[in-house]
Amino acid sequence: MSGLLVLAAVHTKECAMHDFLSARAADLSRLAMTIQTNLDSAEDTIQSFNHTLTELASLGVRDFQITGPVVYARPAGASSDEDDTFTLFQAVLLMPGGIGGAVWDAVEYAEYLGRPHGEPTDLRPRFVPYANCLPLVRAMLVAHVSEMLDRLMRDVRLLG
């Protein structure tokens, strides 16, 4: 009888592991689908916006830095087990430059956030144009483009 109990316990444990692994596989599949859907939405839209932003920069709309949120964070090394520092990717719109990402070390980003209000920071050295961003970052940028474009339009006022 005890052999049957052991077999039942092993079978129950194997079923639980299978269910856990199936759930993880479904989670990974949903993540990949979400990223791909966002990327598909972003590709033509953001490239079109960047073309127009380049045209606006050539017409004198220059020296603007519009920042959005951090859209992706990853360990600076191969794993957070090996390195406790993180690299952050922030949504930005630079004129000239267009929509892209600013790449930060987490400590530098914290210092940037803690700077005195109004103290300028040049994001150009950190800027990665949209076309050169990781696909995951490009996929995440699309959610913040509208707000950054609205802020640019508020900042550009034509008088006359």
Structure report:
19% of the residues are buried. Helix content is 52%, strand content 21%. It starts with a helix and ends in a 5-residue tail after the last helix. The radius of gyration is 23 Å and the shape is elongated. The protein has one domain (2-155). The chain is built from four helices and four strands, in the order αβββαβαα. A hairpin with a 2-residue loop joins β2 (86-95) and β3. It has a four-stranded antiparallel sheet with strand order 1-2-3-4.
Number of separate helices? 4
- Which sheet architecture does the biggest sheet show? 4 strands, antiparallel
Global mean pLDDT: 86
What is the number of strand segments? 4
Strand order of the largest sheet: 1-2-3-4
Number of folding domains?
Answer: 1
Query: How large is the share of residues in beta strands?
Result: 15-25%
Helix content: 40-55%
Secondary-structure content class: alpha+beta
Rg, nearest Å: 23 Å
| Helix/strand order, N-terminal first | HEEEHEHH
> What are the segments in which pLDDT stays under 50 over at least 5 consecutive residues?
none
Shape: elongated
The rounded distance between the terminal residues' Cα atoms is 93 Å
